[in-house]
Amino acid sequence: MLPSAIQSEATGELSIESAPNLSELPQFLGRIAQYPDEFIIYDDGFRGRTFRYADIAALVRTLTARLRAEGLRRGDVAMIWPEGRPGRSCTPRGGRYTSSMNPMKTSALFTDLYELTMARAYAAEHMDQCAVFELTFRKMPRNRNYIVAAGIGDVLEFLANFRFDDEDLEYLHQSHGFPEEFVERLRDLRFTGDVFALPEGTPVFPHEPIVQVIAPILEAQLMETLVLNQIHLQSLAVTKAVRVVEAAAGRSVVDFGSRRAHGTEAAIKVARATYLAGGVGTSNVLAGRAYGIPVFGTMAHSYIQAHDNEAESFEAFAALYPETTLLVDTYDTLEGVRKVIDLACRLGDEFRVRAVRLDSGDLGALASETRRMLDSAGLKHVGIFASSSLDEYEIQKLATSGAPIDIFGVGTKLAVMEGASHLDMAYKLVEYAGRGRLKLSSKKVLHPGRKQIFRQIENGRMTGDVIGRFDEALPGESLLCPVMLRGRPTGPIELEESRRRLQRELMRVPDHLRALDPSPSEYPVSFSERLRGDLERIRAELASVERNPCLI
To answer: Boundaries of CATH 3.20.20.70 in the chain?
Structure first.
């Protein structure tokens, strides 16, 4: 039996809007916290957890404080995802979504084992001074001329919410033999450092820091896998999507790739990346809800196949969805177009179909004939949607040939980032305890110390970058900005803002770098004189120590 103090609320549908007086909530929580009873909450019927009323009161107070700290006020609406998967949601006023509305929650165990073994070693050696790690890539893929920085929002969300839960700690203790003393240290571990990053949507080149993590070395080390994973995937995805959107030359692009993406999270991120790059939307419903981007989709061939008559399938579908797109290539593309024209004649003014979709064959020739047929039938308002193994090269060919295609659906080759599916990206220590640290491995020389990128702009175009020491004052725009201070994000990463920034930045990229083909000349990136001097000085110091070990 539930205590009478909460009987009425517990037996009915309780919502915040129906509460008689929100100012009484703290007192209400104080009352229920006094009940010693325990009860079980079942998670979708599969897992039960025991709670006390005091636990629920504490959780609500913590959530309230968190929402207030994030700037939510009375009348605001928040989206809260249940642990590990998407849940029901309300759309914030104005459709405003931030990266924190992430349908894929990431565990603190998303790390490589060697990061935990190093963390234990740091703890055992009492190494707890500040470290600086930088995320860079060493060389440009052969058929890319620049990379677009993306994904920092998911990094910040992970860092802000980083913690090991009881099950994580039990696993580390039982399965990997980490001692209780270290496990207890992990229990209380939170990220308390700073993060500087390139603003999302900024073009970046080899050796330039995309993200800097500045924190006690144990904290900073544990973040390596997630930081690299998110920035690597999303930067490659946006870069591919930009090429597709640019090739379309003003025609619309929709992400169609979820079914063949490399996993569910990759599908969601590629959908976001396509919209960031200037695409108009995605076919993925979860991505649409998570990021507030338009969702597209009408029918597959199976719907038409399930009917005995193609014309009947068109009529039935258009009756349910008057402003739909009809797929016309299930049997014979041009015959399918004729059936759409016949449907328009039968329906007269009630015909509101917006487009036909071509999904096979010679898209250029079929689009031209389809346009001729539709125009002759007085259906100039009906657009042409094209899909079928498209990439930036095929789209550019169709666009430059004048094919009358209004919108492209791009799937597999976008989703798997064909042509450049990986970067030689690394997360490396460049400073510890106030001293620059370097690496002299063959072809992997790492310049020491925290850095800044200075971008030179002439007549509205990028002309070259200089990587300098963070404390230098060099000509040009300083690109790395604070996005997290003392473990708290400095502000949300807004998708619409990133989208607008990318379009502005692309206008500054030289034309030869925006071309699909490899540029005959690389974008100039150099290291400052002081940074080169730091490298040589520390290199000499290390050589001296190697010759005279007693100097250590």
So the answer is: 252-415
In whole angstroms, what is the distance from residue 410 CA to residue 408 CA?
6
Q: What is the pLDDT of residues 197-246, one digit of tens each?
A: 999 999 999 999 999 999 999 999 999 999 999 999 999 999 999 999 99
Select from 313, 355, 351, 353 the least CA-distant residue to 331.
313
Q: In a 10 Å sphere around its CB, with 0-12 CB exposed, 13-18 middle and 19+ buried, how is residue 94 labelled?
A: exposed
CATH number of 113-238+424-515: 3.20.140.10
- CA nearest 145: which of 240, 270, 210? 240
Tokens of 43: 């998670």
Q: What is the pTM of this model?
A: 0.81
In angstroms, rounded to a whole number, what is the distance separating the alpha carbons of residues 434 and 214? 11
The residue to which tokens 């250029």 are assigned: 364
Rounded distance, CA 99 to CA 359, Å?
33
Q: What fold, for 252-415?
A: TIM Barrel (3.20.20)
The tens digit of pLDDT for each residue in 79-119 reads 554 443 333 333 333 333 344 445 567 899 999 999 999 99
Q: Where are the alpha helices (DSSP H) in 108-197?
A: 113-124, 152-160, 166-176, 180-187
Contact 318, 304 (CB under 8 A): no
Strand partners, 488: 485
For 270-354, strand residue ranges (E) read 281-282, 325-327
Where in the chain is CATH 3.20.140.10? 113-238+424-515
